[in-house]
Amino acid sequence: MKNIKWSKEIFKLVFLIIITVGSFVLGEFVFENRHFSSALLGISAASIGLLVFHLIRIINFIKYPSAYKKEQINLKDERNLMLIRYAKSSSYDLEIFIIFGITIYAIYLNNVGFALAVFILWIVRLSSFFYYLSKNSKEF
Amino acid sequence: MKNRLEKLRKDRGISQEQLADALSVSRQTIGSLEKGRYNPSIILAFKIAHYFGMAIEEIFIYEEEENEKY
Q: What is the pLDDT of residues A113-136, one digit of tens each?
């Protein structure tokens, strides 16, 4: 039976508590009535969801230790990893067309800031693609 | 590539779940392997062969014609 890495799970739990409480305090009391206070409260609400999900996960591991082993196997399973890689690759191909559409829209709007942001997005995507292509060709 | 995984597993009276646990893969991977939808990595193929105490080529059957298409 694979031992549960409690330190990792507790670190995630503490991190989520800090994000939930921190963003709530910042949004409700520190940046009250400023335009980004609602965004901070939104982050806090989303963190509560993740926190509850993580707590249920931990309780499940305590009740059924085999569930942890199963999760670890699923995370490292070669077919699952292949499926994730294919999904990422397909979504990258699709995103290229969407970003192309956004580029045309940015040019049509004649908004320099927006067009610049889309241009940076293109640079980041293409340079990261060639970086990983080169890195992987050296590795494999 | 064809394989005899399903037959070998059934002959030994073990479930997909048990085989998956022994090989540290998901049950779905075993199902896909048995249906011939997924070809395993060389490491997993060795693990399977080692588990059944056989050579890889006794379990996995390479088909020349099918692979020539690619």
A: 999 999 999 999 999 999 999 999
Structural domain includes residue A51: yes
Residue B23 maps to which CATH number? 1.10.260.40
Tell me the three state secondary structure of residue A7. helix
Report the complex ipTM.
0.86
Q: Do A91 and A62 lie in a common domain?
A: no
A65 and A19 within one domain: yes
Q: pTM of the prediction?
A: 0.77
For A78, the closest of B20, B21, B41 (CB atoms) is: B41
Task: Look at chain A and report how many structural domains it folds into.
Answer: 2
- Cross-chain Cβ contact A78/B44 below 8 Å: yes
Which of A76, A93, A121 represents a domain boundary (last residue)?
A: A76
Select the residue from A75, A78, A84, A85 to test the B interface by mutation, using most B Cβ atoms within 10 A.
A78
Model pLDDT for residues B14-43, shown as the tens digit of each residue: 999 999 999 999 999 999 999 999 999 999
Looking at beta carbons, which pairs linking A6-13 to residues 24 or more positions away fall under 8 Å?
A9/A54, A9/A57, A9/A58, A9/A61, A12/A54, A13/A51, A13/A54, A13/A55, A13/A58
Q: Which chain B residues are within 8 Å of A73, Cβ to Cβ?
A: 20-21, 24-26
Residues of chain A contacting B24 with CB distance shorter than 8 Å = 73, 76
